[in-house]
Design a protein that fits this description.
680 residues; Tetratricopeptide repeat protein; alpha+beta; 25% helix; Porin; TPR-like_helical_dom_sf; 3-stranded antiparallel beta sheet; 19 strands
Length: 680
């Protein structure tokens, strides 16, 4: 434990997995960069390289899927029929067929996407007024003068009613199009079928000048403009349509898709919700809504919406494909692999499926690398005593996947640890001076999404490096540690439970000789946590933890964190505030033990990426203030940053991470980690 609470970014504490450049949504703090995963452990003396997601070059943007089968509610004079799979009909009777495998517009991340391409069916589904329809009847022609006054009055009333009905003019959507408009619409549809969207738009624009109220041409123009990535013009066309037909769920959903594809996923979300309220049975609108949520960073909402679609139709391939992407962005590539297989079995978009499978293969590739780390921290044991704790050394790490189901991570390190007091260089200033050799291994079970589990073991052996110290190494010279965590994604809530045992150096007195010795001790922590993702911008989490130390000390803590994302685009900017209450059963001369302490921490995090340069970056500033019963107030400023990139098409990941802090007592801490690895 440190005297100056160290706000090292949580992305500095884990071994990185394979990463490909993608607009990944946040795992925490509503941002795609620094995040605390549900299984993050406390900061150790040798920080691991940053965790990086295994992601595709860009998320597939498939959001149109075959619609659920349902009957049309046609007017009585229209022939009733059951809608077949692959066809969608709006409330006005216009039917649209679907074909897959088409190359759609760029998604909000900037790359081409795979999309179900809607095309208006060639046959008009709304009947035109019949040529032999009855003409208007004059009001006085309804009958003759009757002998009875009541009969004459009744006859006149019925005649007036007949006259009003016969003279009624059907709405524009039900009137027959002019030959020129019908020919332009037919030609534009043919061009759209050939994926020549610019030609289709060029045909529709002059035709709409002659027939500006034609809904079918406006609708087709809005869609081909979106498919050809002319988003601003498409959005304006959709707004013109919705001003005339505000209750048209199909056009509302198309407008929402154009917003999402243009990078305005946050504006698209309320439009999708309105379209779903108007027509809750439209499954492809729900899939588009879920994808917009995921692009906006709301992975919890996206996962819940995809599961709702699958509850309604277990054979919806695009819903399985979307769920696969969300699972991968939640660091569960093995679950993504399973969902992608189901998507393929149920006819998901082939190009989007190929893209997701490529991202999964990259995430599951074996990887090995090496790195170097150096850090200096403060071990405060009283207001007048603050030791310098330093660590330096090298490490090796690697990962692989067994049977595409179980993730395996291994790590080996050779580190130098020493603790000294401030003052002139002298051997008497050294509390201890050790070398350590450590190995650790983790197993990850994430294929059973949304339930996730991770566990691992660690072993470290210590050797005395300098015998002229105040606390020489005792008879015990090794340490055994472990960690495990179970969590699940339940809608917008993520409950978790875990237990771990971490290393801590205990300075004590030998029971036999009575001399001071150093014992490789540890602290065993059990904790419960709950996270709530209110939206893509807001999240909150809380935890309760109990720690038992080998020197018979105990620690109890309760913590809560709330975060709000200010900027949704690159770079993302997030504000957060945390409050922690902690207490120990007794003070210790070996580590920092603020009794009945309350710590406030406010921070701002910036994260981003560059596709062209193939790198991602992040920076954070945090101010913390802590009060306790046995220490004077501590106010600390912490800065941290990271830069990571890949060479040779994501085959050689490289990373640099660092932090620096200073408090009101002029205590300074810092750390630097360099890492590199190779995938094959």
């Amino acid at each position: 434990m440190l005297g100056t609470p160290r706000a090292v970014p949580y992305w500095m504490t884990r071994t990185g997995r394979g990463r490909s450049r993608s607009r990944g949504p946040p795992g925490s703090g509503s941002s795609p960069g620094p995040r605390r995963s549900p299984h993050s452990a406390s900061i150790r003396s040798a920080p691991r390289t940053r965790s990086s997601r295994a992601r595709s070059p860009r998320p597939p943007c498939s959001s149109w899927a075959p619609r659920e089968r349902r009957k049309l509610q046609s007017p009585k004079r229209f022939r009733s029929r059951v809608q077949r799979r692959g066809r969608m009909c709006g409330r006005n009777g216009n039917c649209r067929s679907f074909r897959s495998g088409s190359r759609g517009p760029r998604c909000s991340s900037g790359t081409r996407s795979r999309e179900w391409m809607p095309v208006i069916n060639e046959a008009r589904r709304i009947s035109t007024p019949r040529a032999g329809r009855a003409r208007a009847v004059p009001a006085c022609a309804g009958g003759r003068v009757s002998r009875f006054l009541v009969g004459a009055l009744a006859t006149a009333l019925f005649a007036c009613a007949g006259s009003s009905t016969a003279g009624f003019t059907p709405p524009a959507s039900a009137q027959e199009m002019s030959p020129g408009s019908e020919e332009a619409l037919r030609t534009a549809r043919a061009a759209s079928d050939r994926k020549d969207f610019d030609a289709a738009a060029a045909i529709l624009r002059p035709a709409l000048r002659d027939d500006p109220e034609n809904k079918d041409m406006l609708s087709l123009l809005a869609r081909v403009l979106a498919w050809s990535r002319h988003f601003d013009e498409s959005i304006q066309t959709y707004r013109k349509l919705l001003a005339r037909y505000p209750d048209d769920a199909f056009e509302r959903a198309g407008y929402a898709r154009a917003l999402a594809w243009s990078g305005r996923s946050e504006a698209a979300i309320p439009e999708f919700r309105r379209a779903i309220q108007q027509d809750s049975t439209d499954l492809e609108t729900r899939i588009g809504y879920a994808r917009a949520l995921s692009w906006d960073g709301d992975l919890a909402g996206a996962s819940r919406e995809f599961l709702r679609v699958l509850d309604a139709d277990r054979g919806n391939g695009d819903a399985w494909l979307g769920l696969a992407t969300v699972a991968r962005w939640r660091d569960a590539p093995t679950a993504s692999d399973a969902f992608a297989e189901r998507a393929a079995a149920h006819g998901a978009d082939s190009q989007g499926l190929a893209e997701e499978r490529g991202a999964v293969r990259l995430a599951l590739r074996p990887q090995s690398g090496t790195g170097w780390t150096r850090s200096r921290e403060r071990q405060i044991t009283s207001d007048s005593t603050a030791f310098q704790l330093e660590t330096a050394g090298e490490f090796l790490d690697g990962r692989a996947t067994l049977a595409r189901s179980v993730g395996v991570d291994m790590r080996a390190s050779r580190l130098h640890h020493w603790e000294k007091t401030d003052g002139p260089p002298s051997s008497l200033n050294l509390n201890y001076d050790l070398n350590s050799t450590g190995v650790s291994g983790d197993l990850t079970f994430r294929r059973r999404y949304p339930v996730q589990f991770q566990g691992g073991l660690a072993y470290r052996r210590f050797e005395a490096r300098n015998p002229a110290v105040l606390f020489p190494l005792g008879r015990d010279d090794d340490f055994f540690g472990y960690h495990s965590r179970l969590w699940g994604y339940l809608g917008r809530f993520t409950p978790s439970a875990g237990v771990r045992r971490d290393f801590i150096a205990i300075k004590t007195t030998d029971a036999l000789s009575g001399l001071p010795v150093l014992v490789p001790g540890g602290g065993t922590t059990a904790d419960l946590g709950l996270r709530w993702d209110a939206s893509g911008r807001v999240n909150a989490s809380g935890s309760f933890a109990k720690t038992f130390y080998t020197d018979d000390n105990e620690r109890t803590s309760v913590a809560g964190v709330a975060a709000y994302r200010l900027l949704g685009r690159v770079p993302r900017l997030t504000l957060d505030y945390g409050l922690t209450w902690a207490d120990w059963s007794k003070p210790s001369a070996s580590y920092f033990t603020p009794l009945e302490s309350v710590r406030h921490a406010a921070g701002i995090t910036m994260t981003g990426y560059s596709e062209r340069a193939s790198l991602d970056y992040g920076a954070r500033y945090e101010f913390s203030f802590m009060q306790s019963a046995n220490f004077s107030d501590i106010a600390a400023n912490v800065w941290s940053a990271n830069v990571g990139g890949t060479l040779l098409k994501w085959m050689i990941p490289l990373g640099v991470e660092g932090y620096y802090s200073v408090d009101n007592h002029s205590y300074r801490t810092w750390g630097l980690t360099l890492s590199g690895s190779v995938r094959w």
